[in-house]
Structures are given as structure tokens and as C-alpha cells.
Amino acid sequence: MASIARRPDGTYRPRYRDAQGKEHARHFKRKIDAQRWLDEVTAAVQTGTYVDPKRARTTVGELADVWLAGKINLKPTSRARYADVLKTHVLPRWGRVALIRVTHGDVQAWLSELSDRGLAGASVRKAQGVLSGILGLAVRDRRLAVNPALGVALPPMQEKRRRCLTAEQLEALADAAGPGRVAVLVLGYCGLRWSELAALRVQHFDLLRRRVLVEEAVTEVDGSRLVWGTPKTHGRRSVPLPRFLVDELARTVVNRPAGELAFPSPQGAVLRNRNARSAWFDAAARAIGEPGLTPHELRHTAASLAIKAGANVKAVQRMLGHASAAMTLDRYADLFDDDLDDVADRLDTLRAASRGRVADILRTEPPPEGPPEPLTEVNPQVKRVETRGIEPLTPALQRRCSAN
Questions:
Q1: Within the chain, what is the greatest distance between any pair of CA atoms?
Q2: 189 by DSSP, 3-state: which?
Q3: pTM for the complete prediction?
Q4: How far is CA 95 from the centre of its chain?
Q5: Are 36 and 72 a contacting pair, CB within 8 Å?
Q6: Are the beta carbons of 272 and 263 closer than 8 angstroms?
Q7: Are 82 and 221 in contact (CB under 8 A)?
Q8: DSSP secondary structure string for all residues of 330-363
Q9: In contact, 191 and 178? CB cutoff 8 Å
Q10: How far is CA 234 from each of CA 138, 227, 268, 302, 365, rounded to the nearest angstrom?
């Protein structure tokens, strides 16, 4: 129900009830303004685009807690990253701002400010994504009509140079790693993430089938707490082992109890990335002339070596545990350049062969010198049919030709 009443002071008071039955009203000096406002609100209620003005006065910070609590699909590390972006970039600017006060222009100015401060393009995009997620929840909760963080201009992504070791460099790194030799080989030839390597147990290796089963991951959250869970894509996978690596594992890993960690710390606990780097990985990287190399770059190395060995994109996807082959291509498309060169070479060969066949068809033999050789009959008993023109002569046609 909606109505407009004239008050004793001469103003007009339009009022309406929302979908929850709550009454709302405003005051206008002119009836035409009151009617226009009432029509707009009534249409919004009927079309489902109505926004409660009081609910829109909720601050971004109040809704941020609700938004983050609802991200039940996030892994602990991702949740920690979102919380860090909220604390560092989003809440200092928007925490006390009412949802209805957030404008598209203000969001764009904020992103430009972050870029001007020297924040990387990827970090600016993460900040925008978090704010857009909160405002998107406000739209779904009917607190806002539209999301003002959508459609803003974003800085380009600064693609970090991907470092891939050669097979010779990988072997040298493993030799220089001391106690981490086999771990380096598994990372560099199987493409495991560090969280997957640290969670491996002896029972996960099947040396007869030359496979390692990746079904767990352990990650470090907030610099101290270890969280166990599934791999990044929430799926288990079977990764092939080269024969030489089977021999290495047989000597060093699988001769221990099945439930033990395959690559523990010296104290028998989970091998943490930062501890391994300070203990032997960083020194080994410097020894081979690759300072600053990270364990994750051995995953890129594994992809590079597999592609050079002739693996197709689907096999690389399964080995690395990517969600799709498209994701593998997006990330490692440049490593498939040799395949493109091979396609070009094959097209060259095909064209050369086709040109040769065309030349054979068009080529004519020079006429032989001297008088032509007489025709020989294949079967003397078969009489020749005399032909003139393009058809054999019939008796009637022969008489007509003789008369002429």
C-alpha cells in the first residue's frame, strides 16, 4: 500500500511498505515530487530492485566480516591472504564508509592512489576484488542496487619472469643441496608444490608402478600455524616417476615405515619452506649461479622439461594438477613454441611434396628425334575399327562420306 498525505504545514508525506511490511516515508514541498518518488520506489519494490535505505547505511567494515565468514570454499592460506588485504588496504579507506556512500568514482580514485604508491598491479587487483566482493554481497542482500566497484580501470599485471632450469642445472642444484638432494629431484622432475612435497609420506610412493600419489598438502599460515588439507585444486592425482628417480627413492625414502613423512625436517617434523631455504636450498642456488631461485620455480622447471621431452598439454596438466588444460596453456604457452616450429616444418615438407607432384604433372617429355615408330598390333586377329572424327563410322555414315 502506498499513499500521499498533506500535512498541516503544507508539505506532502508519501509513504509505502516494503516487502517485509515495514513502513517508510519522506516529506516533500511539492506533491509532484512526492508522487515521482513514490512511483520510483513502488516500481523498485515490484521489480525486485528495491533497496532498504536503512540497510544501505551499514558500513563496509561491518559487512566485510560477514563476507569473509561466508567464504567457506577458501583454503586457510587464501583466507589469510584475503584477511591481510582487508586489513592493509580495504578497511583503512572504506571500513567506516556507509555502503550507500561508496561511489564508482571514489573507488577508481582509490585504486589510482594505490598504484601511485607503487603497489604492484596484482596487489591492486586483489584489493579491488576484495572490495567488489563485499559490495557484491551488499547487492545480493538488497542493501545496494548496483556494485560501484565493477567496471573500474585496473592496472596491467606485471608478468614476473618465469625461471626454468635446464636438466644440467637441476642436477647441479641437487648435488649442491646436500640433505635436500632427493627433494630437489622430486620437485624438479615431478612438478609438486612445496605444500604437497612436505605432506608426502612413504606410503604414497608406488615404485613398482613408478607413481607418487599426491592427496594431501600442508601449508603454513600466519608464519607459524600448520594446516593440513587437500591439494590446491581439492583433488588427488598420480604423478609419474622417472626410472632414475625410482632408484634414488628406493635407496633413501621407501626403506622407512609407511606412515613416516617422506621428507621430514632434521627433527622429524614437517619440513618448512623457509627452514629448508635457509638450511640448504638458497646456498645450493647460489652455488649454481642462480641466486634468488625459489623452490616453486622447480615446478616451472618440471613443466619445461616435460614439454621438451615431448609431453602433450594434457599430460602436463595432469602431472601439475591444474584444473584444466586451458590453465596449463595459459601459464606455459611459451614453452610449446617448439611444437609450433614443428608444425611449420611439417607444412614446409607438405608444400614441397605437393609442388613436386604438380611439377611432375605439368612436365612434358621432348618429342623423340627421327621418324615415328610404326604402330604394332597387339592382336592381329582383331580387326581395327576405322574411325573418322570422334566416333566409329556406321554403314550409313560411311556411304554419306563416300558420296561426298
A1: 132
A2: helix
A3: 0.66
A4: 32
A5: no
A6: no
A7: no
A8: HHHGGGGHHHHHHHHHHHHHHHHHHHHHHHHHH-
A9: no
A10: 29, 14, 27, 21, 71
Residues 191 and 173: beta-carbon distance below 8 Å: no
Q: For residue 153, what is its C-alpha cell?
A: 580501470
Residue carrying C-alpha cell 598438502: 217
Q: Strand pairing partners for 238?
A: 213
Q: How far is CA 216 from the centre of its chain?
A: 22
Residue 258 backbone dihedrals phi, psi, to 5 degrees: -60, -35
Nearest 5°: phi and psi at 25? -150, 155
For residue 236, what is its C-alpha cell?
588427488
Asked if 198 contacts 270 with a C-beta cutoff of 8 angstroms, the reply is yes
Q: From CA 190, how far away is CA 329, in angstroms rounded? A: 18
Handedness of CA 167, 172, 173, 175 (dihedral sign): positive
pLDDT in tens, the chain (404 residues): 577 788 888 888 877 766 666 777 778 888 888 888 777 777 666 655 666 677 788 899 999 999 999 988 888 888 889 999 999 999 999 999 999 899 999 999 999 999 999 899 999 999 999 999 999 999 888 888 889 999 999 998 776 777 899 999 999 999 999 999 999 999 999 999 999 999 999 999 999 999 999 999 998 887 778 888 888 766 789 999 999 999 999 988 888 899 999 999 999 999 999 999 999 999 999 999 999 999 999 999 999 899 888 888 888 888 988 888 888 887 887 777 665 666 677 788 887 887 776 555 556 555 566 666 655 555 555 455 454 445 555 665 566 656 55
DSSP category for residue 295: T
